[in-house]
Amino acid sequence: IEEGKVELVDILLQAGADVNQRPAKYRGATALQLTAIGGYIRVARKLLNRGASTS
Questions:
Q1: Separation of CA 5 from chain center
Q2: Smallest Cα–Cα separation from 18: which of 47, 49, 41, 39?
Q3: Residue 13 exposure: Cα atoms within 13 Å on the Cβ side
Q4: Burial class of residue 30 (count of CB atoms within 10 Å of its CB; 0-12, 13-18, 19+)
Q5: Rounded to an integer, what is the distance from CA 30 to the centroid of its chain?
Q6: CB 16, CB 50: distance < 8 Å
Q7: Which of 13, 23, 31, 46 is 20 to 30 Å from 7 by CA-CA measure?
């Protein structure tokens, strides 16, 4: 996600990755928050389509 790799995100989502997980490694930031910071619009759209929380 940090590099905006859409294909990798697709694989993770298909494998059942939790789009709202808040890993300690990223100080509790969600994948959607990280994509917003990085400007990865395509990845953000995929996460939102899979139910990523905006709050």
A1: 10
A2: 47
A3: 21
A4: buried
A5: 7
A6: no
A7: 23
For residues 15 and 13, give the distance between their C-alpha atoms in angstroms, rounded to a whole number.
Answer: 5
Band (pLDDT 50/70/90 cuts) for residue 25 is confident
Query: Per-residue pLDDT for 47 more than 60?
Result: yes
List CB contacts of 44: < 8 A, sequence separation 6 or more: 32, 35, 36, 52
Q: pLDDT value at position 1?
A: 58
- Residues 35, 54 contacting (CB under 8 angstroms): no
pLDDT at res. 2: 56
Q: In the chain, what are the domain boundaries? A: 6-49
